[in-house]
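Q: Joint fold for the lines below.
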Amino acid sequence: MTSATSATSQVTSAEGARERAREDSEAAFSAAFEAAVAADERIEPRDWMPDAYRSSLVRQIAQHAHSEIIGMQPEANWITRAPSLRRKAILMAKVQDEAGHGLYLYGAAETLGTGRDELLDKLHSGRQKYSSIFNYPTLTWADVGAIGWLVDGAAITNQVPLCRCSYGPYARAMVRICKEESFHQRQGYELLLVLSRGTEAQHAMAQDAVDRWWWPSLMMFGPPDDESAHSAQSMAWKIKRHSNDELRQRFVDICVPQAEALGLTLPDPDLRWNEDRGHYDFGEIDWSEFRAVLKGNGPCNEQRITQRRRAHEEGAWVREAAAAYAAKHQHAPRSDRKEAVTS
Ligand code: FAQ
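A: Joint structure:
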C-alpha cells in the first residue's frame, strides 16, 4: 500500500467512525425523547426533539396564536356599540385578553426557534392558517354572547387537554389561557341569558345568533377523524390528547343542557340523546362550507386579513420605537440605566 492510499483509507475510516458515532448519539437522543413522551414527561426547549415534532408544534401553535389575534376583530367590532359601560368594560378586557393569549403563544413558538416576525409574515401572506370561526360576521350584539358561550366554550373543550401537551412551554401557556377563556365563556353565557329572558325582540336576537354560530363552532374542532392529516401523529407524540371527533362530541354533550337552561334551541333537528352511546347524536356538518372557508372563501376572510395587514403596517412605528428604546438602554452606561429606571 502506498502512503497516499493508506492516508486516504485512514481519513475514510475516521469519517466512518464519526458518522457511526453521530448515528449512535442520534439514536440515543431519539430513544430518550420517545421514553420521555411515553412516561408523560415534558419536552423542554433545550431537549433534543425530532424535526417533525418541532415543525408540527410550530404549525399548531402558530395557527393558534394567529387565531387569537385575528379573533379580536369580530368582537372588537362591538366595543363602541356595547349597550352599557359595564358591558363595554367587560368586552374591552376580553379582547385585550385575546391579544395576551397571542403573545403567550408566539412566545411558546419562539422557544422552538421560530420568531414572531416570521410567523406573522406567513399569516399575512396566507401561508399559515387561523381558525375558520373568525371568518364569520358579528351582525348583532347577541353575537358577542354567542361567541363567548360557543366559540370560547369550544376553545376550552379543545384546549383543556392541551394543558397536558408533551411540549412544556405550550402546555404551561394553555393553563393560563384556559383560566381566562373560562371567564370569557361565562360572560357570553350570562349575556345570552339576559337577552333570552329579556323582551321578545332580545330573545329572538339571541336565538338568531345561536342559529348562526352553532355549526361553525362545531367546525372549530377540525375535519372528521378519518380526514384529519395530523391527528394520529400528534396523538402519538401527546401533543393532542383526543381526536377532533371526540372533542366535538364532548362539546355537543356539554352544550345541549346549557342551551335548555338558556331557553334557546340549537339549530339541529337531528340532535337527540342516544341511550346506547351515552352521547347526543347530532346532524351532518356541512364540510363543503368548512373547506370553502379554509380556502379563503368564507364571508369575512378578505376583510379579516386586510385589517390584520393594515394593523401590522400602522403599528410599524410602535415596533421601531420599542426597538430604539431597547437599543438605547442596552448601550447606555450603567448609571444612566439606573436613572432611567428610577426616574
Ligand atoms: N380552522 O389534521 P387536522 C381561539 C386545518 S380558539 C382552520 O385535524 P390538527 C380562542 C389544520 O390546521 C381557535 N384550519 O389538524 C378565541 C390542518 O391544516 P395545516 C384556535 C383548521 O392540527 C375565542 C388541516 O386543517 N384554537 O382562538 C381548522 O391535528 C374567542 C387538517 O386538520 C386552536 O388553534 C379550523 N377550524 O387539528 C379567540 C387550538 N381545523 O396545518 C378569540 C389548537 C383544522 O396542515 C375569541 N389547535 N384545520 O395547514 C388544535 O387543537 C388543532 O390544530 C386543531 C386541528 C384541532 C384545530
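Q: Anything notable?
A: The CA atoms of residues 83 and 141 lie 8 Å apart. Residues 339-343 have pLDDT under 50 and may be disordered.
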